[in-house]
Amino acid sequence: MESQELVQHLEGRAVFRADKVAKVDCFRSERLLVGLNCFEPGQSQAVHAHAGADKFYVVLSGKANFVVGERTVAAGPGDLILAPAGVPHGVAGAETRTVVLVAISPAP
């Protein structure tokens, strides 16, 4: 990995697609996956769970509704959403154009 890739300006990495959520890998190893999920208004991510892997979301911009276990919560810039291994989670829907930093460990 080149040293310039070790420092990334995330806002410049965001991409959007009209047909589905855009995903951008920022870093991947067998121990960790870090990326961006970029949502247009109304786009969602199906509820799912990761056996043996913890995940978190940090909303960088925008606003979306997240599902964690039995809860649905609205989250905006600076909010951290945690999904420990085995806990169902997803994005019920973006209210505005939304960029979310996502990390999973160990990487799937």
Output the number of helix runs: 1
Kindly state the mean pLDDT as a whole number?
95
Which structural category do the helix and sheet elements fall into? mainly beta
Quickly name the level 1 CATH class: Mainly Beta
* Major sheet details: 5 strands, antiparallel
Looking at the structure, the CATH topology is Jelly Rolls
Computed CA radius of gyration, to the nearest angstrom: 13 Å
Strand order of the largest sheet: 1-2-9-4-7
List the helices and strands and how they pair.
Layout: H1 10-13, E1 22-28, E2 33-39, E3 45-48, E4 54-61, E5 64-68, E6 71-75, E7 80-83, E8 89-94, E9 98-105
Antiparallel strand pairs: 1-2, 2-9, 3-8, 4-7, 4-9, 5-6, 5-8
Description:
The chain is mainly beta. The chain has one domain (3-105): Jelly Rolls. It contains one helix and nine strands; from the N terminus they run αβββββββββ. The chain has a five-stranded antiparallel sheet with strand order 1-2-9-4-7. Strands 3-8-5-6 form a four-stranded antiparallel sheet, with no helix packed on it. A hairpin with a 2-residue loop joins β5 and β6 (71-75). The longest helix is centred in the N-terminal third of the chain and has 4 residues, at 10-13. The radius of gyration is 13 Å and the shape is globular. The chain starts with 9 loop residues before the first helix and ends with a strand. The mean pLDDT is 95.
